[in-house]
Protein 1
Amino acid sequence: MLDVFTLATLESAATGAKPARLAVLGCPVSHSASPQLHQPALDADGIPATYIRLEVLPGELALAFAKMRELGFIGCNVTVPHKFEAMDCCDEISDQAKILGAVNTVVFGESGSRGYNTDGPGIRQAIQEAFGMELGKTHTLILGAGGGAGQAIATQCALEKPAVLTLVNRSLEKITALARRLESISPETEIHVLSFDDPQLRERCHSARLLIQTTSIGLKKSDPPVISDDCFLPDHCAYDTIYQPVETPFLASAKRAGCRTDNGLSLLIHQGAIAYQHWFPGSDPLPHMRAAMR
Ligand code: ATR
């Protein structure tokens, strides 16, 4: 099997004893860990199918869906940059995906394709598991709330209706618009919006209990910390959506301050397990996925 398929080579993957029946669609997609996550669960469940990476160019998602359906695919995951385009390419969209404004999981059913978003419920479960915290009962501060991941997490927080939610982003326009949408989801939540250079950032961090880092800062070893050390308090819980490297400068600062920390591997696993259960209702892929990613 190739590491990455394209629409031109897809048909060759869909035959044989273990034909491709699931895929992650992205551009680029070679870095995606989704096959490592899903294949062990498929194998453990005795499902004779392969999960592949499929590189699809922006604008070609509808074509990719049509081709996959024709070849007998069960469904797919959708990653950057296709999560928004996927909204227009599904026949039906779950209420949750509509509210979150993005689709990351698709089921090809008899009546058409149905889009879901498992990032929102995935972060809820990851935070619950890592820190025993409920998003609805916690003041969460999201760093990079204007990005794709940050917006999904902020929206999930609003759905859980916390008393206070703080959104931080480099550019304010994105989170000002986001805050207006979140206000309509949860009018009772007090939403604070600020940029990284706001003099109140440290104080806002101190008043939160959970800090979630969703920017791309930290992906490179040479990246600086996204916020300064004095923003952390020992009773903070700090979560970084990045899982490679395992410890970003954000998590290293949090640890030095005595905070409890976790990285995005738990989000990857939980969103994946929920996606798998959309394809195979009643299944329990979590133990296999955890073992595979350990
Ligand atoms: P996405 O496709 O999810 O939007 P992205 O462009 O990597 O991905 O941006 C993710 C988040 O990281 C955004 O909140 C982005 O801030 P902007 O909305 O202002 O662009 C943030 N981000 C990326 N690089 C950053 C940097 N050097 N400083 C601060 N924030 C940064």
Protein 2
Amino acid sequence: MQKVFIGFFVFIYSISNVCAQHKTNWLGAGKIVDPYQYTQVKHEFYNNAAVSCAHPLASLIGAQIMKQGGNAFDAGIAVQLALAVVYPAAGNIGGGGFLIARKPNKEIIAIDYREVAPGNANKDMYLDKDGNAQLELSQSGRMASGVPGTIAGIFSTLPSAKLNFKLLIQPAIDLAKFGYVITEREANSLNSNKNAFIKNNSHTPAFVKSISWKAGDTLMQPELAETLILIRDNGAKGFYEGETAKLIVAEMKQGNGIISLEDLKNYKAKIRVPLSFDYGDYHIYGFPPPSSGGIILLQMMKMVEKTANIKKGFQSPEATQIMIEAERRAYADRAEHLGDPDFWKVPIKTLSSDAYITNRISDFTPGKASKSVDIKGGVIKESEETTHISIYDKDGTMVSITTTLNGGYGSKTVVGGAGFLMNNEMDDFSVKPGVANMFGAVGGEANAIVPGKRMLSSMCPVIVTKNGKPAIVVGTPGGTTIPTSVFQSLMNVIEFGMNTDDAVNQPKFHHQHLPDEVYFEPKFPESLRNALIPMGYKLTSRASIGKTEMILIQNNKIEVAADRRGDDSVAGF
Ligand code: DON
């Protein structure tokens, strides 16, 4: 019995309401997965291809798409669309994200489909007449939404895919139309958001029912299925124009929302130049601004690389301390210097230069905590819900996608008649200098609201090569904890020699400059806490940090792990 739990964890759901007639109607995905009976697989080895993401049904769909001749891009599209149905807290068509990928010909691509501020947005839109920030407006309801980017992102990825789009979207349509059984975690999550759904909607969304949800119930989303059909038949215009666009704007007018038909029609995904750097034999590719993920990761890894402290090993006080101090300094720079590069001159060259980074950590004192009040953003002379998908295919394509509505279920407003949740991403702007957003992140002018501007993100999809060959695909949700989770998961493999299951699931810690505290997960060892406190660190416990999906390619095997903090699951062949 024990063996079953070593590296290969399977959780079998009890199925209470299998609907035979739905199964008969089950189209594309019916040949692929059984939405009424599925299992979670946490850690596996495959020979050809692998997926890790937040839901077993979506992972299985991605693996099957690749079995049927699709590549990792095909799988990425099908998985994102499936997650928009089976993982409504974060999977989305009403949000945005970032994709970074490496093709077999070594070409690296980075697609930015982050939401943008609507045309009628302005810097002070979340301030009351006395200048106080009204965070309830940036965090929930119609005014909290940026113009969604996910569908534009998916169509920007399509030229790299092989299969017909209609095949890729059909599993999602079927899951929405015929339903799927929910887990206990999902039931609890829907139940605890019931009041917020009622408050933020003028009609009753599919997520609300009179009695409580329980594990094994079937969730059907017929309006979402209709929207997906419009996208299947009309492409991106099925979302950004016509019926869906009209429904989004009508929903905005039910409250104080400001997204217009013009905003939707004008939305464009952007191709970005990835950030990349060496760490030992590894070459790491991260996402550049408007995400802070890549630059924070680069700074943290470079600050600890080759130090005597890091060589002391996993969970040693020395290695942990230098990682905390690297986190503190990188996050100070985030608050001061980072924003949408199309609107703000981000000093990316300096922030990523060896000289700057060496100088930034030069005041590190072993055994003594720095103080965030003393660590400002560096001086530059030059000018809990998101979801991650890691995929690897048999030709060596690596695809890493992080996508989000921002908070769990985003703005909690479902577009009436269209069945999908809108994001609350406007909260990722700095609504007022120095006022913390829902993740405690502060910012200033670099991340102020401007119409058409992308709000700063922490999302950090990453791909890694080793000696020029595919090595790691990784990423996670977690708001501002995203770069630290990716940092620690990567260090766990590269520096501390762990397998993917341990790398992802070992307890994590997080420092983001302000507040000046180290957050730690419950399993963070007491002895380590006792070593850090006398150095001057304030330690604060927190439920969980990250929900990381990692693929490691080594010795001709694909090793893949899904985070045990959620219903996440891997699939492959
Ligand atoms: O882009 C960002 O940084 C945030 N909107 C991510 C939100 C998130 O990860 C929530 N998940 N737990």
